[in-house]
Amino acid sequence: MGDEKVKNDALQIIGMFQLLPRLVVFDLDYTLWPFYCECRSKREMPSLYPQAKGILYALKEKGIDMAIASRSPTSDIAKTFIDKLSLKPMFVAQEIFSSWTHKTDHFQRIHTRTGIPFNSMLFFDDEDRNIQSVSKMGVTSILVDNGVNLGALRQGLTEFSQNANRSEKNKQRWQKFSQNPNSSKKKDED
């Protein structure tokens, strides 16, 4: 499936949703590309997973910002590969550094740089520990097995939409509750 076909399919998927994330964050190794940076040389020409580039272009066309959160110990190689693939201008933030925090530091920096709330973000990663820790921050997080693809995009947008709807309903309940100051007092105060 060529990049243009994937892009068009991704645009169709994105078009099915009314609520979209303001920022989509990607891991690099085994999420956008099928290797670990530290096992490669800067001289090599990297490649992305087959559907990754089309998805990136579709998100860009829809005006959805994108960022990178990678715990790669070789950020120099990762950044070189991003340049070689002509992807650098696509990302509003690139947080690529080794960390023991399972990417929570990466997301704090992305939030500081962009001002986008965590619950307005969608994240793709291949490691469950990263998915678990970042989800606790309020980010809709999707575990990918064989890189980001159209199925993962559909799943991510579906879960993001469900989380946003749930959050809005909770907000409405809280507003009703907080507008009625007697709602927590016992009714049988005679």
TrEMBL record:
Pfam families, per database record:
Acid_PPase
* Region of interest (Disordered), residue spans: 163-190
> Could you state a single Gene Ontology molecular function term?
acid phosphatase activity
Descriptive protein name:
Magnesium-dependent phosphatase 1
Q: Which InterPro entries match?
A: HAD-like_sf, HAD_sf, HAD_SF_ppase_IIIC, MDP-1_euk, MDP_1_eu_arc
Q: Which domain of life is it from?
A: Eukaryota
Organism field: Salix udensis
